[in-house]
Amino acid sequence: MFEFIKEHLILDDPLILGANISIALTVIGIVFALTYLKKWKWLWTEWITSVDHKKIGIMYIIAALLMLFRGGFDALLMRAQLTVPNNELLTPQHYNEIFTTHGTIMILFMAMPFLLGLMNVVIPLQIGARDVAFPYLNNLSFWSFFFGAILFNVSFVFGGSPDAGWTNYAPLAIEGSPGPGINYYLLGLQISGIGTLLTGINFVVTIFKMRAPGMTLLRMPMFTWTSLITSFIIVFAFPILTVSLALMTFDRLFGTHFFTLTDGGNPMLWSNLFWLWGHPEVYIVILPAFGIFSEIISTFARKTLFGHKSMIISLVVISLLSFLVWVHHFFTMGGSAALNNVFSITTMAIAIPTGIKIFNWLGTLYKSRIQFSTPMMWALAFIPTFVIGGVTGVMLGMAAADFQYHNNYFLVAHFHYTLIAGVVFACFAGFEYWYPKMFGHKLNERFGKLAFWFFAIGFNVCFLPQFLLGFAGMPRRVYTYLPEDGWTALNVVSTIGAIGMGIGFMIVVYNVLYSMRHAKRETTGDPWNGRTLEWATATAMPPHYNFAVVPEVKGIDAFWEIKQANNAVKKENIEYKPIHMPSNASTPFVMSVLFFVAGFGLVFELWWMAILGGIGILACLVLRSLRSHREDEGYYVSVDEIKKREQPIQREA
Ligand code: HEM
Ligand SMILES: [Cu+2]
């Protein structure tokens, strides 16, 4: 065992060694603090085993922020490496590993969980429900995502990181990459993918079955709509990923030949399967972002979202088209012209429903009195920047033109314009917007705006020059270049922008720490004068049962209408009834740890460990089936407790 650890622990690289030490110190510090403050039990009962959707959402967001830090650090290292020609900060192998982990972490362990976290916090509240449909499953979703992410991250210090790009193309990932790196990729994604699929199922059922009386499908707020459609895409797309990852795991561990170049394997099959999942995946992260911006724009423009119905139709159209465009990721890999034409047209067609959305947002802003809060700043900056991402996407979608642009920095600039101006801006915007619901106070607006300006300006300074680098022919995924190439000046500018974004991120983190201490506590549940039901709870932070009395919905902007009608019922007159809630669950956490153990065993082909983990997982399933009756009984929140919780913060009617 000792030999095994000595063989795989990475100690020779000073950068990784430094990270090793700081990770070890942080872990020791956290363990010490928890023990010293006697917080272990609190952590276990209030968080780890909690089935409250709001707490699960918060845990998702914290994990995503940590991953943003990790992915952002990777990004800064790459930018540092590319700042000047012939730089020797990183070796070629290290550069390969970093762009692979950066891309994978940003998409699968940062953007998606961040949005799933916001969905978790907001959706049940927004539809007037007490929790999600399957709270127990929700806890399992989070922990399997979390331990999948941990497994992926372990590669960094133990055994070596994956190095075949986030697309993990065969045959490179099978025959061209010895060592455990790719195994980490396959199993980390597999385990966390289970969590994502379960979340998709959970939200489809929640949104269909648990809406408050009166909330018809067409009255659902836009964030709920986008979350519903996203959940559907997850349900259809993630099984493709599951199967593809399993097949490649067989190729690597058991010598099958699904994607090899020899013995009847076909690497192109991987590309097809990967992008058949991968393209819908980018809509899984962009659609909830659209939903967040819609909520924010209508709140701070003080108007109903313009063209609510056309928004919904365009959502559905985008989701269908997202499955019909995947071949645009390999226009240049030798398909026929006819084939490329078909996929070129479906790709460009996506611009139409997306354009409709842009006009709807502009229509909402038109002749409104805009309130420039921090969330709104992100939303306003999103519109023009995302248009740049969209327009360059159409340029790439033309098969003939793609022969020029693909695999150079024009592409890198394009997808960062969509992923950052679309998704990351939305994550920050949604975080600031719903922060009072999660923590009972707003974030400081001055620091919020400062962070916004650093990040938004830094972003454009970083990525606009990359379009030009693309025109100048700089390829993607190269670790250095020559002075004669003439790419130096633009690369310097780009790195300066990246530093600006890093500072912006640090200000966001500082703002959280600052506001925890200094911001004014919210007393009402409605700090922004909101329009939708999540703002209708009596307390600033809703109790675990959300609504003491389930609200009734009379239109889009349900809460706004309640406020306009001024029929906020006096609290004394309400007759509370006991509320049925689910109990905490510990099996999901244990099971996810076992997933990690089994996954780690497979990564290193330690069969005993893999089998032990597998048996443990099965045992958990059996246990759960036997115990389910008792566990599912849950408990009742008594009328007394409800009264106590609703009392001190009565809102004036
Ligand atoms: C914080 C600012 C960011 C910077 C400075 C940055 C920078 C970079 C750089 C330099 C590359 C490598 C390009 C190459 O060598 O070909 C890259 C690749 C990539 N980035 Fe980012 N990035 C940032 C944020 C993000 C975010 C937020 C996402 C996704 C949500 C993302 C997704 C990707 C993907 C998917 C790749 C491709 C990886 C691959 O080639 O396999 N990046 N980024
Ligand atoms: Cu695509």
Automatic annotation (TrEMBL):
Protein family per UniProt: Belongs to the heme-copper respiratory oxidase family.
TM helices/strands, residue ranges: 15-37, 58-78, 98-119, 140-162, 182-208, 228-250, 282-300, 312-331, 343-366, 378-401, 413-435, 447-469, 489-513, 581-600
SUPFAM superfamilies documented for this protein: Cytochrome c oxidase subunit I-like
Cofactor binding annotation: Heme A3. Binds a copper B center.
Pathway recorded for this protein: Energy metabolism; oxidative phosphorylation
Cofactor(s) required, per the database record: ferriheme a; Cu cation
Catalytic reaction list: 2 a quinol + O2 = 2 a quinone + 2 H2O
Residue ranges of domain Cytochrome oxidase subunit I profile in the record: 36-554
Function statement: Catalyzes quinol oxidation with the concomitant reduction of oxygen to water.
E.C. numbers: 1.10.3.-
Pfam families named in the record: COX1 (PF00115)
Keyword DNA repair: no
Superkingdom in the source lineage: Bacteria
Protein name per UniProt: Quinol oxidase subunit 1
Keyword terms: Cell membrane, Copper, Electron transport, Heme, Hydrogen ion transport, Ion transport, Iron, Membrane, Metal-binding, Oxidoreductase, Respiratory chain, Transmembrane, Transmembrane helix, Transport
Enzyme class: oxidoreductase
Membrane topology: Multi-pass membrane protein
Main location: membrane
Compartments, record wording: Cell membrane
InterPro entries tied to this protein: Cyt_c_oxase-like_su1_dom, Cyt_c_oxase-like_su1_sf, Cyt_C_Oxase_1, Cyt_c_Oxase_su1_BS, QoxB
